[in-house]
């Protein structure tokens, strides 16, 4: 069975792992998922990730980050641009997530970047997701 929306599947697996209080999760890997995981790591939402090759397929392993009170660093994640409806934003109209306390991931002509990086470089693109 093929997955129609692999990025949406990634976010759903992260949500389910948070609800189960898992420290680590696995999913089918891709370059785009690895770049999203890298942005999450750089912004402090996850501990780390690794890409493993199991035969002809890649596997992405993500280590979730929990605080001392067992609360996950990711309290919410939302897919904004979907395969059925793409949402693009200009450099001046990039949305703020949770009044600046969250993070939006933007797919630009210069690659994937956070909303603050896109504002700094003055580039717009497709809003992939929002994380807070």
Provide a short characterization of the protein structure.
The protein is α+β, with helices and mostly antiparallel strands and 132 residues long. 26% of the residues lie in helices and 33% in strands. The chain has helices at residues 6-20, 31-42, 115-121, and strands at residues 24-28, 46-54, 57-64, 77-79, 88-89, 103-108, 111-114, 125-131.
Write up this protein.
This protein has 132 residues and is an alpha+beta fold. Helices cover 26% and strands 33% of the residues. The chain has three helices and eight strands, in the order αβαββββββαβ. The N and C termini lie far apart (31 Å).
Which features characterize this protein?
about 130 residues; alpha+beta; Ribosomal Protein S8, Chain: A, domain 1; Dna Ligase, domain 1; 2 domains; three-stranded antiparallel β-sheet; 3 helices; about 25% helix; globular
Write the layout of secondary structure elements.
Layout (H helix, E strand, L loop, with lengths): L5 H15 L3 E5 L2 H12 L3 E9 L2 E8 L12 E3 L8 E2 L13 E6 L2 E4 H7 L3 E7 L1
Antiparallel strand pairs: 1-3, 2-3, 4-8, 5-8, 6-7, 6-8
């Amino acid at each position: 069975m093929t997955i129609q929306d692999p990025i949406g599947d990634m976010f759903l697996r992260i949500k389910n792992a948070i609800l189960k209080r898992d420290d680590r999760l696995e999913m089918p890997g891709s370059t785009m998922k690895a770049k999203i995981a890298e942005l999450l790591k750089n912004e402090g939402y996850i501990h780390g990730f690794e890409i493993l090759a199991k035969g002809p397929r890649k596997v992405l392993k993500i280590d979730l980050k929990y605080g001392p009170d067992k609360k996950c660093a990711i309290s919410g994640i939302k897919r904004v641009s979907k395969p059925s409806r793409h949402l693009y934003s200009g450099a001046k109209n990039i949305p703020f997530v949770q009044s600046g306390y969250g993070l939006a991931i933007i797919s630009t002509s210069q690659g994937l970047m956070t909303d603050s990086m896109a504002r700094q470089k003055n580039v717009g693109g497709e809003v992939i997701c929002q994380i807070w």
